[in-house]
C-alpha cells in the first residue's frame, strides 16, 4: 500500500491517509465473501463491474466520506487493480474452465433449439397474404 501511495500521479497523500485508504480497501475486499456469485458470474461482467459490486456491498460512498479526493482516486485505482487480479485468479482455476464449457454448451443448445423451432414453424399466413392482396 505504501509504494502505490508514493507512486500515484495524484497529489501526495497526507499522513494517515494511506492507512485510511488501506482500511477502506480492506473492508471492500472483505465484501467479496458476502457476494453470492460463482466464478463465471463474477468474471462475465468484468473487473470494473466486480469493483462496483464490492464497493456497493461494502457500504458505497460511506467508505470514502473521510478520504480526500486524491485518496478516493487511489482507493478506486487499487480496487480496480485488485479486482482484475481476482478475476484472473478465478479464470486460472480448473473448475472455471469446466463451468465455462458447461455454460457455453447450454447457451449453444438453447440457440440451436430456437433456430430449429424457427425452421420448422410455418410462416404466418397473414404476413404472406398481406403483400399479395394489395398487388391485385
Describe the structure.
- By secondary structure, the chain is mainly alpha-helical.
- The chain has a domain at 2-93.
- 72% of the residues lie in helices and 0% in strands.
- It is built from 7 helices and no strands.
- It has helices at residues 2-7, 17-30, 39-43, 47-57, 69-92, 94-120, 125-135.
- α2 packs parallel to α5 (69-92) and α4 crosses α5.
- The model has no long low-confidence stretch (mean pLDDT 76).
Number of helices: 7
**Terminal residue distance:** 79 Å
Q: Would you tell me the overall average pLDDT?
A: 76
Beta-strand fraction estimate: under 5%
**Largest sheet data:** none
- Rounded radius of gyration (Å): 25 Å
Features:
elongated, 7 helices, NACHT N-terminal Helical domain-containing protein, NNH1, 136 residues
Amino acid at each position: 500500500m505504501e509504494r502505490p501511495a508514493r507512486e500515484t500521479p495524484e497529489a501526495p497523500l497526507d499522513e494517515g491517509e494511506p492507512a485510511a485508504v488501506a482500511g477502506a480497501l480492506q473492508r471492500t475486499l472483505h465484501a467479496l465473501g458476502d457476494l453470492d456469485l460463482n466464478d463465471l458470474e463474477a468474471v462475465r461482467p468484468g473487473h470494473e463491474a466486480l469493483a462496483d459490486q464490492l464497493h456497493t456491498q461494502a457500504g458505497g460512498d460511506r467508505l470514502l466520506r473521510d478520504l480526500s479526493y486524491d485518496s478516493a482516486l487511489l482507493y478506486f485505482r487499487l480496487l480496480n487493480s485488485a479486482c482484475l487480479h481476482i478475476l484472473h485468479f478465478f479464470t486460472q482455476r480448473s473448475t472455471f474452465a469446466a463451468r465455462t464449457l458447461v455454460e457455453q454448451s447450454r447457451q449453444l443448445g438453447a440457440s440451436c433449439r430456437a433456430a430449429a423451432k424457427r425452421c420448422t414453424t410455418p410462416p404466418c399466413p397473414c404476413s404472406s397474404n398481406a403483400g399479395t392482396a394489395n398487388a391485385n
